[in-house]
Design goal:
This protein is an all-alpha fold. The chain has two domains: 101 residues, no CATH class; 102 residues, no CATH class. The protein has six helices and two strands. The protein has a two-stranded parallel ribbon with strand order 1-2. Helix 1 packs parallel to helix 3 and helix 4 packs parallel to helix 6.
């Protein structure tokens, strides 16, 4: 029994560490993708970078959920914070590189930036109040549409990109509404130490 328990702990730790590793790999890929964009490499490298980041965004969460550490409050909260920060950085690294390389990207960058400021701003405000809100399917799909819109800008006609952008904006608005609706059901802790992990209230 002790051997089985030890193996299970090692397995859980492996999945948890692998999840964090995948998160940081996404950042590395974003930096490399931005470098290739600025250097003017084949657009296929840009598409591949964004597509790989999107795939890893799914797998890092799925990997963490396979570990029993996902049931531990401290690990779960830290994982959520790291993943959220990574998402924001990855999006901006790629988008800013595209904007520098091709200023016509500005019409797509502005809605993406507005989306990021609105959702990240709201979630951050709630976090400061002691509430950590987890994304639901609508939020994850809206985030994926950012990547799809960027890929569309790189390889498809502007009409297709416009439609992808419209879907992204619509889903992002619904995601923000979902965040607001869920947090309104909870009362934020009044503790001045609300930013500490142990005082956070989780909303899934």
């Amino acid at each position: 029994m002790k051997v089985e328990s030890h193996v299970r702990v090692d397995r859980d730790l492996l999945f948890a560490v692998a999840s964090y590793g995948i998160t940081f790999v996404r950042l590395i890929i974003a930096v490399l993708g931005a470098f290739m964009i600025l250097r003017g490499d084949d657009v296929r490298f840009t598409v591949a970078s964004v597509a790989l980041i999107m795939a890893l965004d799914y797998f890092d969460g799925a990997t963490f959920n396979r570990s029993n550490f996902s049931a531990l409050r401290e690990w779960r909260i830290k994982r959520r914070i790291v993943d959220s920060v990574s998402d924001r950085l990855v999006i901006q690294i790629i988008c800013i590189a595209l904007l520098v390389k091709n200023f016509s990207f500005v019409w797509l960058f502005l809605p993406i930036l507005t989306r990021e400021l609105a959702i990240s701003g709201y979630v951050s405000t709630q976090f400061a109040k002691g509430i950590l809100v987890y994304p639901r399917s609508i939020s994850k799909i809206a985030c994926a549409m950012v990547g799809i819109s960027v890929i569309s800008f790189a390889v498809f006609p502007v009409g297709f990109t416009f439609m992808a952008c419209a879907v992204m904006i619509t889903l992002s608005g619904l995601a923000l509404f979902d965040y607001i609706h869920r947090t309104q059901k909870y009362k934020a802790p009044r503790s001045p130490m609300a930013k500490l992990v142990r005082s956070l209230e989780e909303i899934s």
